[in-house]
Amino acid sequence: MSTTSLNPPLPPVELRQLVGPTQDHYYDNPTGQMVFPEIPPQAYDFVFDWGCGCGRIARQLLQQNPPPRRYMGADLHRGMIEWCRRNLSPHAKDFEFHHQDVRNLGLNPAGRAEVLPFPAPDAAVTLFLAWSVFTHVNEAAAVFYLRELGRVLHPEGIAITTWFLFDKTEFPMMQEFQNALFINDVDPTNAVIFDKSWLRRTAGLAGLTLSRIDPPAVRGFHWKIYLRKAGPGALHAEFPPDAAAHGVQRPPLMPADADRLGLDNDQEK
Length: 269
What we know:
The protein is globular. The protein contains 5 helices and 9 strands. The chain has one domain (41-239): Rossmann fold, CATH 3.40.50. It has helices at 13-19, 56-63, 78-87, 139-152, 196-205, and strands at 46-50, 70-75, 95-99, 125-130, 153-166, 180-182, 192-195, 208-214, 223-229. Strands 1, 2, 3, 4, 5, 6, 7, 8 and 9 form a 9-stranded mixed beta sheet that branches. It is an alpha/beta fold.
């Protein structure tokens, strides 16, 4: 695949504010370097970007030299998907974006489904991305989507995911079936923190192994978890200590019209 431009439009700030970072450099890759240099080049064959938002990673991958052979982004926010279709897809014929009509209080309150399968074939995805997505789903949805990840991931594929994690042994009042903590009683998916042991077990049941674990850059924030298909003798990586400095990384606050941002004025919701 070749690109027709190495400088596609940047998403507007009002869309960037819905996903967190707003500065241009988070969306830009002017040197064309590999976006994830720690993975082998062949992993970029078919990239599935779950929770692609307004194209933060997609735009960097589009500028990458060489870009992925195929890219598929999916998100529950209709306006961000429409923006990506209008502004990124024309620059790369093999970059496609799918709206998934999943209910979310801030971003898609009228969504018709609690969860939906990924729009990708079985065992086809060589690089699965879920950046700041498992941090915003409840436990039942996380179980469903880990199984979906196991379904779509190629036997030699790699998944790069981020999580908020805690050790349940430090919360003796929690029941066996309670494995997640929340910070927002109005919208629990504002930030969801999962038990480490639960993640190991649930990933294993989905046919996945935690192959590499990078601790947060800010204490208590994103753990970067690399997942691969489980095979004979495959063992989960051990969790390193979280020794990062304390800091503040608050999730974005949703404006009242967040679900309509990015849509054409005459477009139906």
